[in-house]
Design goal:
The chain is built from five helices and five strands. By secondary structure, the protein is of the alpha+beta class.
Length: 174
């Protein structure tokens, strides 16, 4: 039986930006002209926000139906292809097994999910007090549920929904 992954939330580190840039360059080489955009998303993309030290990358591709063609190349750099993994229209890859280091979320251009991820990130970047509140919640939940990722995720869900609503309102006002 595989040991449970520990839920660990760390203070923000500038190393995360560098790790994103390095991985983005590698992914651009793998996907070539199929890849339209690479975005750093998730908590590691927000300066000052405490996060699980996992770099989330969002890739925008021309055609989601072609992504499986790169599964072998992704495996070659340490990724495991997970299919949609619960989100329709996404191809998902994770790197590092139980010592997870990177998640890659691939969406086809025009997917509404792209804008949702970018808006959440951008809102927290512009509202550091909200980012601090969110980071403190994550730190508290990681301490409360160190080996229960489901409870950790569940504990964040209401706050995430509130931030998403506030971000949507903010984007209409911008």
């Amino acid at each position: 039986m595989e040991p449970k992954r520990k839920v660990e939330v760390l203070p923000y580190s500038s190393i995360w930006r560098t790790a994103f840039q390095k991985e983005a360059a590698t992914l651009r080489m793998i996907f070539g002209s199929e890849l339209l955009e690479v975005h750093h998303i998730g908590s590691t993309a927000v300066v000052g926000l405490s996060a699980k030290p996992v770099i989330d990358l969002l890739l925008v591709v021309r055609s989601i139906s072609r992504v499986d063609e790169w599964n072998e190349a992704m495996r070659g750099i340490g990724y495991e292809a997970k299919g949609e993994n619960g989100i329709a229209g996404r191809c998902y890859f994770q790197k590092g097994g139980n010592a997870r280091s990177h998640h890659v979320h691939v969406f086809e251009e025009g997917s509404s999910t792209i804008a949702r991820h970018l808006l959440f990130r951008d809102y927290l970047r512009v509202h550091p007090a909200r980012a601090l509140e969110y980071g403190e919640l994550k730190t508290r939940l990681a301490g409360q549920f160190p080996y229960d990722i489901e409870k950790y995720i569940e504990g964040k869900s209401d706050v995430i929904r509130r931030i998403e609503c506030d971000a949507a309102q903010w984007s209409r006002e911008c």
